[in-house]
Design a protein that fits this description.
This protein is mainly alpha-helical. The protein is 68% helix and 0% strand. The protein is built from 10 helices and no strands. This is Sigma-70 family RNA polymerase sigma factor.
């Protein structure tokens, strides 16, 4: 899907925060305000949907469904105390999970690292693993292969990476959105980062081997 950027939007709207654009749209039906919201966030929302369903055609359908719901629900279910993008992401997440469940491809994975503990989750992690994985993810962010490798993660790990890395959601919100504990969300993020690091290392090794063979 080639997402369209609305043109001819006044610079005044481009300088406003999301909450102001939402207010203009809700109070006055201001189409420019809504178009600016779309311009800002549609690529990330579509990328999340596509990363979960793996089909451009179905991602298009879900994306359209999501924004139909957004338009119809903004007047009665959106709470302006919260972030608009977080509210939209809940709608996108729920629509995506509904699709996956209908396809009988979604399985809730019970976590064997989600046991009650009196210690903080991060206290039980080897710091160098988490830091190294995070640094690797940041270094490789600009590479076109990033989304490909994210697509190779399990659905549960893919969710938390997209929500945390692209939408900067707090782990508490991610846990609530995905209906798991904070420990589970943190654990999925940790293993996702470790797996991404391994995938990038494997890719680098393959590139080096290919270069050596050509030499």
């Amino acid at each position: 899907m080639k997402l369209k950027q609305s043109k001819h939007i006044s610079k005044k709207y481009q300088q406003l925060e999301d909450r102001d654009l939402v207010r203009f749209y809700r109070q006055n039906g201001d189409e420019q305000a809504f178009n600016e919201l779309m311009n800002r966030h549609q690529t990330k929302i579509y990328s999340y949907i596509y990363s979960m369903v793996g089909s451009a055609g179905k991602a298009d359908d879900i994306f359209q469904e999501v924004f139909t719901k957004v338009i119809t629900k903004m007047d009665d279910t959106y709470n302006e105390q919260g972030k608009w993008i977080a509210w939209v992401m809940r709608i996108a997440h729920n629509a995506t999970i509904d699709y996956l469940r209908k396809q009988k491809r979604f399985v809730d994975v019970s976590s064997n690292y989600d046991k009650e503990s009196n210690t903080d989750f991060y206290d039980r992690l080897p710091d160098e693993d988490l830091i190294s994985a995070q640094e690797q993810l940041e270094k490789e962010e600009a590479k076109s292969s990033l989304m490909k490798h994210i697509g190779e993660l399990s659905k549960e790990q893919r969710q938390v990476v997209m929500l945390r890395h692209y939408y900067e959601m707090p782990f508490k919100e991610i846990a609530e959105l995905t209906d798991v504990s904070i420990n589970t969300a943190l654990g999925r993020m940790r293993y996702a980062l470790i797996n991404l690091r391994k995938l990038f290392e494997k890719e680098k090794e393959q590139e080096e081997n290919n270069y050596a063979q050509r030499g």
